[in-house]
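### Sample
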Amino acid sequence: MAEILPVNHFKNRKRYTERKHFIQERSKKISSGYKSDIKQYQVYCSSTAQPEGLESMLDYLYVSIVEQRVKKNTWEKRLSAIKRYLAVTYDVDFESEKAVLKDVSYIRSLYDDEENKTLIRVKGKQRVDKDDLVSLISTLPIREKAIALVNLVTASRPSEMVAIKMRDFDFDDNSVSIYMKKQKAWFDKRLNQLTVKAVKDYKAKYNLNDDDYLVGRVYKNGRYESVKVSTEAYRKFLNRTIGLTAYNLRKTQVSSMHERGADLVTITKQTGHSSTQTLAEHYLNVSDKTVDKFL
């Protein structure tokens, strides 16, 4: 008599198969942030009649420096994108390609040469005077004012701003919960009274519900649509509204808090940075205003 297998046996087998399929698919995933760099590499291979592979990768990386004169941070991003593309598309195992990685390091060393010193200079996003910025934002229409103030005070990235919903605000606590995509964690960020009032006014005017997006979309006829807009659309919105980027606002808020006496731990609690070192290295260069005090 044949053994009768329990129902759970088949359920487990089905789940195992689904899990393996999921892992296989996830292992082949290429970040959307790499698409542009991969496309440029493909165009280069096509224009130079080279097959995609390790040799053309090295050639492209070399040309990127000696002919195209790209900045080092751009070059590093290209390298990461192409390595991921070749690993996924052609099953290239870079851990076993020691000679290729050594060649990459030699090409990278071109940035150490005197004639390439301008290629390692990174000019960060500029901060602006916060008081002047707040004065400008205060003149904006209700929706634009609320969004710009939230972005400024919370020092949020575009990807975080477009995901905020009205239910994420706690007006009684003067705070908003923001999902930090980079850290994959939720952070409660503080709001000042000016920002709380602006968001309340915006919510009331457009009769927004808890499930509506803070940014959303408003048509020329004034109709609001609750939709998660793209980060690119949000960048254009900010540029059109105040002529700045979210990173200008982020750096402005960090610098302003620091100049007013906030320590690094306090600032990271508001910005959501994973470490005070990252904050200090990328956002807290001594400002001209601070230098001017001692002239």
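Residues 32-120 form one domain. This sample (Recombinase XerC) is used throughout the tutorial notebook.
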